[in-house]
Amino acid sequence: MPIHENGWTDPTGRAERVADRDEAAGHFPLTTLGYHCWRELDYLPATRDLLPVALAEHVRAGQRALDVGCHHGAAAVYLASLGLRVLGVDINPRAIEAARQHRPDATSRCRPEFIVADFLRDRVAAAGSIDVVVLNRFLTCLPAVEDWQDALSRALELLTEGGLIYVGDFLLMPACPHNRRRYQLAHANGGRWGNFAVLDDQGRPSFVAHHHSVQELRRMVSPYRVLCFRRFSTRSRHGHASRMFELIGVNERRPV
Description:
The longest helix is centred in the middle third of the chain and has 14 residues, at 145-158. The chain contains 6 helices and 9 strands, in the order αβαβαββαβαββαββ. It has a 7-stranded mixed beta sheet with strand order 3-2-1-4-5-9-8. The chain is α/β, with parallel strands linked by helices. The chain is globular. GO terms for molecular function: methyltransferase activity. Residues 66-165 form the Methyltransferase type domain. Keywords: Methyltransferase, Transferase. It holds the Pfam family Methyltransf_12.
């Protein structure tokens, strides 16, 4: 098993083999592969389903939840199993079509509603009407800092007083040579630090994603009282290590 600097291990030995592909990706205009390119993507997420189970002890049946970037609906179905009234939104019509095929668990008290919507442009709910906003691996899809900030502002606007925000997403992994190289290439191509191109089977950039810094975590939680925060590691579908975090915050600011 190759062992790299800072003790990072590459169980597949793949890091060196993809260097040339990453170098080629650096010549593409990565700044054009922002959030809205997800509208047309037909893909499987790189990371296995990660459900917001930490919410279970903080929510109650009948509350209204919004799952932003719900993809194929796994998290929304889980939230519905807790008795929440769930609206799942995604910019990708194929994702919503797949989500609607979910059959609720026999113990579920509610069935999620799924709609195609652009969270950054469309009005998906009235201000102050949502009890729980879930951003489960959604912010990673927003490589442009303006979109990232807009999403967080919109989430806060939708929450009721005392409402909860759940964020589950990826942390920076600069100790991994493969990821550090990807960050450097995207940064040199006009992206913010932590952006990187995700390549298709032909080695072409399919979309740009983002891994989060500690400073960005602080900005996320600044409007909220934090109920829980944890960091953990998981594996992608291809066996790569991923550093992740999840947090739950309470909106204690009264609407203006």
